[in-house]
Amino acid sequence: MARKLIRRYLPDVEKIRTHKHLRFLGDRLLEPNLWHLNRYSVPRGVALGLFMAFMPIPLQTIPAAIIALYIGANLPITMVLVWMTNPLTMAPTAYLCYWVGAQILRTPPQAINFEVSFYWAGEEFLRVWQPFLLGSFVVATTLAVIGYYGMKWLWHWHVLRDWEKRRKRRQARGKKHS
Question: On the chain, which terminus has fewer CB atoms closer than 10 Å, C or N?
């Protein structure tokens, strides 16, 4: 089961609670939904992680973690999904967001020579900022909604499947004893 696999890699809550740099959060880190895999915290974590992954802000992990603390989203799942966009995937995801925004604004997409530099941020970004920001918001929101409801559906399907397996096992046991 995926739940057992994920639990194996979850950090020890007590170590995190006593970590010197996280003490300022106090008992907030002991909130069960932050660490437990349940039908409430997992979809929230998926939605928040996907949303923050496509937000064009620096250090997305920090605001994602803070928001997770306040909405009861599963923190490890949120963090893993935020890192979907990383230095290796930054250029393709940025172009996807720009392209989506350009399509919505009905402006022809321009060739973008993306580079991580102050020149690009100051000059080139000014040409594409509107479609880029709009596209980022649309892609982030769309993926968050799909992730939230998709995870809720998957969780529900998994529970129904387990119930059906248990029902069949009980029926099989009942036939053996008859």
Answer: C
